[in-house]
């Protein structure tokens, strides 16, 4: 069984290059979303614990099975621990044999950003120039990079309740040729935006973004409302916009639309990717991608990483699965 | 994060000794079962795939969270792969931080046998001498060993539809001072038995054990009926015996009792361990432990192994979880 550590992911991506990696990941996700019906899907399995949530996200088709372990503990930074940490495994469906175990904290940040950019490619205005980030935590730079490969961005406007997170973002971003506009609040950050990503960590009903902040039609990439009792957008804003989700059954439990009636229904992103429905801010006004993070995105990044790791001979083969001449003789191992 | 390979488990157990390990594991399970209400429990999450099933088994209390990945593919041996393969992870509940990833194929065999012996300690006759094993696959020797530390066994009667599996069992067992009686069918194997373990792999409704085979009161440890559509005992035998399960909600989906009415109810093993109910074959006649394998047993073996691995400095520390001075600066890793 192949095991990939953080350095292995770093090595792989630097070999391939950021842009190529993101574009390849978006392509892989589009392939998998297009095969929507071939997947055995379920909402993730959550243990709600004091101070956070711990989740398992399984998915499979005829070829591969994947799961991710991921936590969300908003108070972790006060103990110098990350809010979100993740690991994941890929297996063969036909035999159940595990192929790879890997770090997934980095991979989650990468796949989340790729998923955002993929959705925006279809739903945002083609000539989107101004990106707003509300929340400049661990996900923020990944978001910028992924969008920058799809759109000709001119400005990033950003705001976080934590000034240190804003400074960190500015420092990391200084290497890129883009106008950086720190803002004093979400209202200021949203002015003139073509794309707004909300990505905050508090596990409660919030109104990070309200109707009055939105002064022109915009693509809202709502990432942080991703757990029962955890939303970011004002209910009226959700009601008055066109909403697209990843997987309706899960989004109703975890997404912004948990604020709406349980009979609410909307477009799922696979319909957009397959061209069965066409939606764009230019023609349909403000669109919210109510993204909660779905197991299919993990499946995509795991199968891509596994292929790349094999091709580039990266990772450590470890003896985690018994190899036996007589498979019924497990006892011989001891 | 600590990673344990198969050799690490082997090293640990040979350091401690089989008997001590099994007894310690039984003690750990008893502690955890006794704290039943403190656990956040759910039936396992199953992806039913062509040729088998792939499952995730999460559980948590205030201190630790664990999950196991496990498959069951009865046709795997024809491709020289094991029917059951497993991996598992242990995390801290308060922060979600993963502590350990480990092989769990061996650990599953060990914890299943320990769980059987633990239940038998309470439910079987104290003077049980004859153990019958129907199915001598990967689990069989583990079963014998665990029972041998609790009961003064004099004979093991055994049967498997695969003669090679019976030969393998006999070879592995030759090191122990016990009368071995190979039998030509399940009927012959069951004669005179005090304890019967059924552990077969076919994913279908079977009647490995029927009412007419049982000629005296016996403790039936029914392991192999552990999946929807997969049972081993004749319905009438289940109806006429006293049934004990691990976790009623899951047993109704997966256990022998899936054959009974959905309103069926029975004792859960934690009630026995806490002494809230007393049941024994000597006083209550035939008792079936309708064991499907519950996440709590994995939790117990994972927390025991983690403690032992730390104490004995075993396993490999790997860089699977980012360690950052500024926890919001995940981007600095790339």
Jot down its keywords.
2 domains, ornithine cyclodeaminase, domain 1, eight-stranded parallel beta sheet, 334 residues, globular, homodimer, Rossmann fold, alpha/beta
Explain what the structure shows.
Two copies of one chain form a homodimer. Chain A is an alpha/beta fold and 334 residues long. Chain A folds into two domains: 2-107 and 296-333, ornithine cyclodeaminase, domain 1 (2-Layer Sandwich); 122-293, NAD(P)-binding Rossmann-like Domain (Rossmann fold, 3-Layer(aba) Sandwich), CATH 3.40.50. Helix content of chain A is 33%, strand content 24%. Chain A contains eleven helices and 17 strands. Chain A has helices spanning 6-16, 18-34, 105-123, 140-148, 163-173, 186-190, 235-240, 248-254, 269-273, 281-284, 295-311, and strands at 2-4, 45-49, 52-60, 64-72, 86-92, 98-103, 130-134, 155-159, 179-182, 195-198, 205-209, 219-222, 231-233, 242-245, 267-268, 287-290, 316-317. In chain A, the strands form three sheets. Chain A has an eight-stranded parallel beta sheet with strand order 9-8-7-10-12-16-14-15. Chain A has a seven-stranded mixed beta sheet with strand order 2-3-4-5-6-1-17. The first copy, chain A, has a two-stranded parallel ribbon with strand order 11-13. In chain A, α4 (140-148) links the parallel β7 (130-134) and β8. In chain A, α2 (18-34) packs across α11 (295-311), α3 (105-123) crosses α4 (140-148) and α3 (105-123) crosses α11. The longest helix of chain A has 19 residues, at 105-123. The radius of gyration of chain A is 20 Å and the shape is globular. The two termini of chain A are 20 Å apart. The mean pLDDT of chain A is 95. Chains A and B meet through α1, β2, β3, β4 and β5 of A and α1, β2, β3, β4 and β5 of B.
């Amino acid at each position: 069984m192949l095991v990939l550590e953080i350095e292995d992911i770093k090595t792989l991506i630097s070999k391939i290059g950021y842009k190529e990696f993101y574009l390849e990941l978006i392509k892989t996700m589009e392939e998998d979303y297009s095969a929507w019906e071939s997947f055995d899907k379920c909402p993730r399995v959550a243990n709600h614990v004091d101070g956070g949530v711990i989740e398992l996200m399984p998915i499979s088709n005829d070829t591969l099975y994947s799961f991710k372990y991921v936590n969300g503990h908003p108070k972790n930074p006060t103990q110098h621990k990350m809010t979100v940490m993740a690991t994941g495994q890929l297996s063969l469906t036909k035999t159940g044999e595990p192929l790879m175990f890997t770090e997934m904290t980095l991979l989650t940040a990468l796949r989340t950003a790729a998923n955002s950019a993929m959705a925006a490619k279809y739903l945002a205005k083609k000539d989107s120039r101004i990106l707003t980030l509300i929340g400049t935590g661990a996900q923020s730079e990944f978001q910028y990079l992924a969008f920058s490969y799809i759109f000709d961005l001119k400005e990033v406007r950003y705001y976080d309740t934590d000034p240190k997170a804003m400074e960190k973002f500015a420092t990391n971003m200084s290497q890129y040729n883009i106008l950086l506009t720190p803002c004093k609040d979400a209202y200021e950050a949203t002015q003139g935006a073509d794309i707004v990503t909300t990505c905050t960590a508090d596990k409660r009903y919030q109104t990070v973004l309200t109707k009055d902040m939105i002064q022109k039609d915009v693509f809202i990439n709502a990432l942080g409302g991703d757990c029962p009792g955890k939303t970011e957008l004002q209910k009226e804003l959700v009601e008055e916009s066109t909403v697209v989700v990843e997987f309706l059954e899960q989004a109703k439990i975890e997404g912004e639309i948990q604020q709406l009636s349980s009979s609410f229904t909307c477009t799922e992103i696979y319909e957009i990717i397959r061209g069965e429905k066409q939606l764009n801010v230019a023609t349909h006004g403000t669109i919210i991608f109510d993204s909660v993070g779905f197991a299919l995105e993990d499946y995509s990044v795991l199968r891509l990483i596994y292929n790349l790791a094999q091709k580039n001979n990266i990772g450590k083969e470890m003896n985690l699965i018994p190899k036996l001449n007589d498979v019924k003789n497990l006892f011989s191992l001891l």
